[in-house]
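User: Show me sequence and structure for the first protein, then do the same for the second.

Assistant: Starting with the first protein.
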Amino acid sequence: MKARLDTLIGRVTMYNLIVLVLAALVVTAIVAGALGQLFYTPLQLVLSTVVAVVATGAVSWLLARLFRTRAHLPSSAISGLIIVFVFMPTADPAGLALIALTGAIAAASKFVLAFRGRHVLNPVAAAAVVMSVTGLYPSAWWVATPVLLPFVAIGAFLVLWRTRKLALGLTFVVAAGAITIGRIMLTGTAFPDALVLAFGSFPIVFLAGFMLSEPLTLPPRRWQQLLVAVVVAVPFSIPFTLGSVYSTPEIALVIGNVVAFAFGQRRGVRLRFAGSRTLTPTSAAFDFEPASPVPFRAGQYLELSLPHARTDARGARRMFSITTPPPARLHAETPAPVSLGVKLSDPSSSFKRALTTLSPGATVHATWVGGDFLLPSDVSVPLVLAAGGIGVTPFVSQLAERARRGSAGDVVLIYSASAADELAYTDEIAATGIRVLVIAPDRPAELPPGWTYLGPARLTADVAGEAIPDLAARRAYVSGPPGYVDHVSAQLRRAGARRVRTDAFAGY
């Protein structure tokens, strides 16, 4: 079931999925308005949507030209659509002008409230604070209504699942929900009524799914993200006033953004393309030289931004695991190179076509570095790693870092490939001296010392247990396409593995 869901929603990029979900919510609201279930008419909703999206996109495009960069229009569309649900829809020209101003402020915040190429605050939250504090057009958060709640919940789940932020969303929903329900019950309201009131009248689910989860304003580590969720939940749920300023959901989110910024990657990453290398008939390594050192941990990924003409539905941003080890010295005079392993399919996405046609010396940008698929720092802990195809990339970085420190440790790698010649990074993995078990349709002509061919069939619990007798004593890590990750994780657990961490390459 998990693999099917990943495959279904992985057909579009994260940004395009959010656009589609928000657009579907707008259509749902229009239908509800036509049926008299909302206070707003279809005309008000349609006009407000058009004005918000166009204004946000147009200002983003203009400012991008001014700052000599390229606007990311799917992100602008997301901001415009969120504005529709945060501010009161209207058909009045003056009100529409204020909605347009809100979109302009949201777009401008990405450029003005930015630090070294990275915006600090959620754009819509920043705009809402400005409009509410000045009294120009206070936020309404009308999306918090029982009529839309089931649709918002489904949409939020899809977004959080696709972005791997379900734990973040649930943490906020539970914390904000518990505090809000408790506060309502203190007024004498019974629990069932307080539950309905909390989730039917407060934008808990919407904020969790579509605003708190924005990747560019989140810290890189999972525990940091969960802490931010709790930080946002407290001012979101407990009313307060500071002079003429009163508590609102947007202020709570801005507080969380500031805390997240203190944790997170504080700059965009500028990379100079150095060249590519063929790994297998269907994969290649792309090497980059950073303008400044890139702080990351072995096993983490970066989101590469590659604006290009005729961008298809897969978008202009993609996430790739870093295969090089982290810098030995972060403040070295020459920044350590960064390399990415990429699966190249035929036909290819417009992004990968643009990537393969990069000229050496071209400059690209990464907007995000993060991830929690990390091996134990203690190399004495025995491990079993399982990689499906290009899913081996995080392990390449991790094993190289361990080997640089003296030993890769007691590690067994189960490496599954679609063909004998599709084993990537064999030299790098062999150099670490770990044991490798290969699964491929055909036996490879040559295997490095310590590598064993297990056969052509998919991994089963029996095969895993026979090949690795002490598997139950090892921590397990699985990386690859969603279907592979689900299957292998289940088989390793059946074979006795008790702790299995996964990294699914959804929509790769």
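Switching to the second protein now.
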Amino acid sequence: MNRMIGRGGQSLRLGFIGLGKRGKSLLELLVEMPDVEIAAISDLYEDRLEEAARVVTDMGRPAPASCSDYREVIGREDVEAVIIASSWTSHSEIAIAAMQVGKAVASEVGGAASLEECWQLVRAYEATGTPCMLLENCCYGREEMALLHMVRQGVFGELIHCQGAYGHDLRDEVAKGMENRHYRIHNYLHRNGDVYPTHGLGPAAKLLNINRGNRMTKLSSMATKSRGVRDWARRHLGEDHPVARTDMALGDVVTTMIQCANGETILLTHDTSLPRPYSRGGRVQGTRGIWMEDGGVIHLEGRSPLHEWEPFAHYLQEYEHPLWAEYMQDGVRGGHGGMDYLCLRAFVESVLQEREMPIDVYDMASWMAVTALSEQSIELGSAAVAIPDFTNGKWMYREAAEPAGISF
């Protein structure tokens, strides 16, 4: 996985902003990379800063500069790029500030609070030329990349429909959000829409060439009633717990249908407030076949028995993405089955080699916009709402990015 290094073998000096559970896990991966230096860290909580500093020094690296104000990190001369793993609603603010001072940005995922936020991201990039990448790790999953490989080879024929989801029982995390200083609860209390769309949308968008020959044009969303988190809190935290006496604004299941310019549809589901096993609900359907994540099955016309499913495992090996084939030889590492590491490497290598970001600011803006737009649609009785073209027409002729050997 060390095919580079650009700039004469130099390292990338990073500033790290946001050191909660997710941020710390990313830091642990980055500090092991020989071409990465952690120059500075920032978080609002002192205990997280101290723990993060120990992660760095325990690897025999110099202690990073530490502060509570992210502006100090992006203002440092020894910081070339920043990793943003703070709360959802702060990602864009920090990313824009970093781009404005010429620091390359890698931002964790989350939904946008407004369309204006998305436009501000695009304008900051276009005004500065500073690279910005969304760290959507699910685009780097083994199955997702094998499916991308299959689609590029025409195995599914012409794509017609894709599905994705964030299906994850998070009742305990949400209900105990105040005690555990987790920002997710504030979104559930005040917003009703797909607040976390990119895990399901990102892989589908890459399969359908969104922003690179295709784009999303409109969406319609619908939400169920909200019962799951409050019910869980009553049973596990007691009737007097604040969450047990509070209704969440967020519906327990939010469904969003998206129309694409080239005629395909994408179905997204947000489902985190009810008992369920984890799933990203993937489905890829074309004129020659269909794959479904739940059950791990596939049917390909002319190869599969008539009207029967087959296990996807055999095809996964046959159509292994070259990046994953190399990765498994080198040794899979890191969280979420190894995709976190690949996603971070894509950013590091793209910056060092001065190549286009594989998940760029236009992807970031359009994927995050689904949250604000789904809220609008639900408020309007599930009316269809237009999805802005954040590329301003460039989607019609932009080619797929191929940074650091990773072809999207």
